[in-house]
Design goal:
Elements (H helix, E strand, L loop, with lengths): L4 H26 L28 H26 L3 H6 L3 H26 L21 H11 L1
Length: 155
């Protein structure tokens, strides 16, 4: 009495999970742990943090993330198609009809994605606007002439 097909799949799943857990534990044991103030600050999408992490982000960040996910999904569908149809003999072996049909379907798929990209681009949703830096409310009691002399000395 051996292991059936489901048992083999179960063993592969358990082996994969075990490998992941062991790799994570070994990584935690070996990596250095040196937190500092800069490492613990919030960071999002290339912008320096101005307020705490619960502040609102520019909505364009979400639009760009969704467009990125859309084109990543496109690669999931186009890469296997390109690998299979890179062999010219396969298209000829299918009497030409299925090869041309799949080519037409793929062209339609890419055109729909191109129209979506053109729409997003035309509406300016791919333009990233940096937030305005907050104006400091710092007021100095140093005379302006002295302040200018200090600036000249160190510049």
């Amino acid at each position: 009495m051996g292991i059936n097909g489901f048992g083999t799949i179960g063993l592969f799943i358990l082996g994969g999970l075990g490998f992941i857990l062991i790799a994570l534990m070994v990584g935690k044991l070996l990596r250095p742990y040196r937190p500092n103030e800069e490492k613990l600050t919030t960071y999002e999408s290339g912008e320096d943090p101005i307020n705490n992490a619960w502040g609102q982000f520019n909505f364009r960040f979400y639009i760009i993330a969704l467009v990125f996910i859309l084109f990543e999904a496109e690669l999931v569908f186009l890469f296997p198609w390109a690998v299979v149809f890179a062999d010219d003999d396969l298209i000829l072996a299918t009497n030409g009809f299925w090869g041309w049909l799949s080519l037409i379907e793929t062209v339609i798929f890419v055109l729909i994605l191109a129209v979506g990209l053109a729409y997003v681009w035309a509406n300016g949703m791919l333009t990233w606007l940096r937030p305005q830096a907050p104006i400091s409310s710092f007021s100095s009691k140093v005379p302006k002439e002295l302040y200018n002399q200090i600036n000249k000395k160190f510049s």
